[in-house]
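[job 4471] stage=fold_predict status=RUNNING
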Amino acid sequence: MAVILKILILVVGIGLGTVLIKYNFQLTQLFGHNYYAERYLGDGGTYSMWKLLGTILIIGVVVYVF
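[job 4471] inference complete, writing structure tokens
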């Protein structure tokens, strides 16, 4: 049972991370620009923030499962 749960977490986590990376423009339009991301990551930092969050999510889920 635990194996099935970990596989489900892996699939959902990778899917959500992919959505964050692929649809960063739409997420920025929906939630607006992030001041701190723009300040510390430069122009277009909000888009980079969504991509970084997606990448971190995917890596974190893979590390958790394996």
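[job 4471] summary: The chain has one domain: 2-65.
[job 4471] exit 0
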